[in-house]
Amino acid sequence: MLGLSKAFGGTQALDDVSWEVAPGTVHALLGGNGSGKSVTIKILAGVYSADAGRLELGGELHDATSFTPAQARAAGLRFVHQQSSTFPELTVAENLAIGDFGATPLGRIRWRALRRQAAAVLERFEVDARPDDPMEELGPATQVMVAIARALKDEDQGGAAHILVLDEPTAALPAAEAQLLLDALSGYARAGRTILYVTHRLDEVMQIADRATVMRDGHHAATVRRGEFDHESLVELIMGRSVAALSAGPTTMVRGKPLLAAKCLGGGPVEDASFTLHEGEIVGIAGLLGSGRSTLLRMLFGLARHERGELEIEGASAALATPHAAMRRGLAYVPEDRPQEAAFADLDLTENMGMACTPSYFRGGRLRHRRERRDAAELMRAYMIKAASPTARFSSLSGGNQQKAILARWLRRKPRILLLDEPTQGVDVGARLEIWQLVGGAVAEGATALVVSSDFEELPAVCDRVLVLRGGRLVAELTGPGLDPTRLDLLTMTTEATR
Hints:
Elements: E1 2-8, E2 11-17, E3 26-31, H1 37-44, E4 52-57, E5 60-63, H2 69-74, E6 77-80, H3 92-96, H4 111-124, H5 140-152, E7 163-167, H6 175-190, E8 194-198, H7 202-208, E9 211-216, E10 219-225, H8 231-239, H9 243-246, E11 258-267, E12 270-278, E13 282-286, H10 293-300, E14 308-313, E15 316-317, H11 323-328, E16 331-334, H12 338-342, H13 349-353, E17 362-363, E18 366-367, H14 369-382, H15 399-411, E19 417-421, H16 429-444, E20 448-452, H17 458-462, E21 465-470, E22 473-479, H18 485-493
Parallel strand pairs: 3-8, 3-9, 6-7, 7-8, 13-20, 13-21, 16-19, 19-20
Antiparallel strand pairs: 1-2, 1-4, 4-5, 9-10, 11-12, 11-14, 14-15, 17-18, 21-22
Helix pairs in contact: 5-6, 15-16
């Protein structure tokens, strides 16, 4: 990439960016929200035209101001995006053949030949699947590997050497599935394939990357080789500040009086959950997919029915049968699925942040828009939300800024009990730190937070204690020196229990 520049209105997304990817390497592309990495990938794919710059691919120069998707493909660039690009209702063979079913002149598909070709591709890329397997029955990592195999299946047909570009491929994968995919990618790299790997997960960079390029505010901040970087140095490159200056974790006060008590709570996949949340603490929940972790939070907020057990809020019995009842008792809930359950993408930032307190803006049957926008502008400052204005469309914000806005929607109500389901999933390291600073501030003022996270490195770093949920039952509580990622990983998968 030679001198890439791209502006959107008055915003300079890329400013004279130059860096290179060496053949046969895994090259990580890192950066915070708004750093320019997504714009770079879209220019490589021919989706965006650069304002200036050139691309050199396999020794051939291309004008980045007129680079097209067809040119990208001819030059050997292959993309697997974060959003699923497979079709769950089709078979593996049919997914591999998308775009090229090899039909006869009369439009008939040679199914036997199609399956034979699919079997060869699966064997070449060591994908543990069969041609006739329904895609929806495969594990998440295997589905991504099928998408990779489809992207690279024609690499032996001559032409330019392929470069595989992966955009956050493990973002929605549990730890075991993510590791399965990382092992496969390492094997692909050893076989001489070139991989450009976009991720927020620095532990993955440490595991598989030969080089890492960091972008910041539309500039190329650095490219470093394996042996020249560690987790701390990558954070500093991404943020442009020292780790010590970032104040990594929230500071909580000494645990106070009980705010919420659950006794033998059950319903759906939750079999038996008994625990107490106190003022001034952050409590984590560790569990695998299907353990009931998200259902537990939904029951507490009145979104799922608890069929047995009791709930108490500050010592008084609480039914919490609806979200409205939960909100009245001081609860707030940030769901895992931001696009589907928390964001109003077509509304503006002001409307999204005001959604939990809209009635307060009505006077005489009219909505006071000016006051709502003024409050939104103040929330943007207080919650470190980067957007063009309070009236910016919510969908135009980066993932980290969307998540901070959703958190602001609830924290402005001064809730006593925060229910957070994967609050930092899919956000960059800077936004992650800011989110925990905001949660820590609320907890320091006397609230409590119950946090579900699949990141077992994150939970010990931010939580006072962690509850382990397995098979719908709370089987362990870890705190102090015993609270570490390895212990959490062990307890979520084995029958061992400790308190």
